[in-house]
Amino acid sequence: MGLLHRQLVSAVGGLKVGWSAIGEAEVVMISVAFLVVLFSVQKFGTSKVGLAVGPALFIWFCSLAGVGIYNIIKYDTSVFRAFNPIHIYFFFKRNTTKAWYALGGCLLCATGSEAMFADLCYFSVRSVQLTFVFLVLPCLMLGYLGQAAYLIDHHSDYEQVFFSSIPDGAFWPILLIANVAALIASRTMTTATFSCIKQSTALGCFPRLKIIHTSRKFMGQIYIPAINWFLMVACVILVCSISSITEIGNAYGIVELGVMMMTTVLVMIVMLLIWQINIIIVLSFVVIFLGLELTFFSSVLWSVGDGSWIILVFAVVMFLVMYIWNYGSKLKYETEVKQKMSMDLLRELGSNLGTVRAPGIGLLYNELVKGIPAIFGHFLTTLPAIHSMIIFVCIKYVPVPVVPQSERFLFRRVCPKSYHIFRCIARYGYKDVRKENHQAFEQLLIESLEKFIRREAQERSLESDGDEDMDSEDDNSGSKVLIAPNGSVYSLGVPLLAEYTQDGNTISEASTSDEVRPVVEEAPSSDPEQSLERELSFIRKAKESGVVYLLGHGDIRAKKDSWFIKKLVINYFYAFLRKNCRRGIANLSVPHSHLMQVGMTYMV
Predict the structure, then answer these.
(1) Contact 187, 38 (CB under 8 A)
(2) 37 and 159, same domain (yes or no)
(3) 503 and 361 in one domain?
(4) In a shared domain, residues 382 and 515
(5) Is residue 261 part of a domain?
(6) Is residue 11 domain-resident?
(7) How far is Cα 203 from Cα 197, in angstroms, rounded to an integer?
(8) CA dihedral for 459, 462, 467, 473, sign (positive or negative)
(9) How far, in Å, CA of 522 to CA of 534, rounded?
(10) In whole angstroms, what is the distance from residue 143 CA to residue 82 CA?
(11) Residue 388 or 500, more confident
């Protein structure tokens, strides 16, 4: 927000130079109007305005260089002596404390270009390097050298030195391109914020929000409506309350240096643990870069009372939100894993699960990818009957635009055949439409389940014939099934019996897990073909009886003997975030007559 505010206000503030009737109040009003327009067009995505970004920024950098060359030639060509480092010593000798304070302003001259890192994934490393070295750096240096030459003869114009130094004939065109460039840079910072929020959500450090992917070609081009409008309101409040460029510049300086120091520390960790570089080289890197950053940081600390505290308070609030969400989510998932039902208990209950098995299919949505969720036991004790077939459905998103329907579902059997319990992992790409017709979803689910059962039966038949080393075999439907030497079945390039972690990544085969073990122990039928047809017929009859979506809402509460801080964090702060975040099944389009919800509270 700090950089966005500084760019827009400084660009719009150029109007005061070219038009004396424009005052500070008018600059604020125009800046607010630009902000509203800027955040209103965010939903159209980066790719739809990308054709205008490149030419506009190229003209802007060329304008900087042109104005700089003009001022150097007209006022003072001796500014090139600034490249001599001895002048740094003379500057500090003459000004001492004031020179130390000026370090923060020097830092702001070199910042802002990091906004390009929001879209670096769309370009090659070489193109970025060439652009920075041969375009961005020379144009910025010529621009600042020209402003220095202008200030030598015009000491009083330091507040708007750039716009004051523009030649009269070129003032309005350059003012226009300056505002366009400010809007582009501000929009890039907003896109970078979306990317950071998305990565934080993937790591479990931020509440789930609605994320809209605006491009089928680039996964990183996203739009988050809630964050977009939140940023707009925050920026408008900031522009109206802090109109001074100096105050917001001080705030931005502290934030920028904090990011730099954190980046240096993280790079040091990568150098030690991943790259395994010699410790002497790592220490030299830390002493040089971190020492330089600490020097600049010490010069901007004095400005905390001049507006920087707003940004620091905002950073603290965001940190608390991320920490509380991560702490609560991790505690909830660990509790669900610890309290999941054991396979021994299911064996004791028998195939009827200790209750009445009513005709039909129950789709139980949960977040666990392994084991029987405790919420299932809550269903067994709460409902007078349970469906004759139970499918645990876990939704996972994979980093591809669209998942073909033939690869949508991954199945595995949870208990012996007589239990009729399966686990299904439903995979969706980031451009897949989730609000599909529930009848089409059910039909595709049942068809995929039947294919899985046929392939499972075929694999057993091959194993019973002693053909574990067979390279390939065609199933009844004509699709290719690959049999690995270890007996794992692969179809369409994906292991059918693969296990998934919490974040959706594939891990080791599930042949040794608790869910597969009862199936392995089950004695094969004397007539496999007849057993297969009976099970397929059972599935079709259950489908005809109806499909019910069973949704379990797990919640956590702190125990009575817990610390006061834990109670406050879990019972109030985390509960508030969880209540207002986007649920994983938000896009389910299911009639209320086919929906059943049961809540369960875990004491932690």
Answers:
(1) yes
(2) yes
(3) yes
(4) yes
(5) no
(6) yes
(7) 10
(8) negative
(9) 17
(10) 14
(11) 388
Residue 223 parent element (H or E): strand 222-223
Q: What is the pTM of this model?
A: 0.71
Contact present, 388 and 463 (Cβ < 8 Å)? no
3-state secondary structure 442-472: HHHHHHHHHHHHHHHHHHHHHHHCCCCCCCE
Is 320 inside a domain boundary?
A: no
Is the model more confident about 545 or about 467? 545
Q: Is residue 552 within 8 Å of residue 379, measured between CB atoms?
A: yes
| CA pair distance 362, 386, nearest whole angstrom | 8
pLDDT reported for residue 285: 93
Average pLDDT over residues 568-596: 77
What mean pLDDT is predicted for residues 215-235?
Answer: 79
Residue 259 located in a structural domain: no
- Which of these three, 218, 243, 268, is where a domain ends? 243
Cα separation, 340 vs 337, in Å, equals 5
The model's confidence at residue 271, banded by pLDDT at 50, 70 and 90, is very high
Quote the number of domains for the chain.
2
| Last-in-domain residue among 210, 243, 276 | 243
Domain range for 480 is: 351-571+583-603
> What per-residue confidence (pLDDT) applies to 12?
66
The CA distances from residue 31 to 170, 172, 189, 264, 351, in Å, are: 22, 17, 16, 35, 68
pLDDT tens by residue, 307-365: 667 777 888 888 999 999 999 988 988 888 888 888 888 888 888 888 888 889 988 88
Contact between 189 and 118 under an 8 Å Cβ cutoff? The reply is: yes
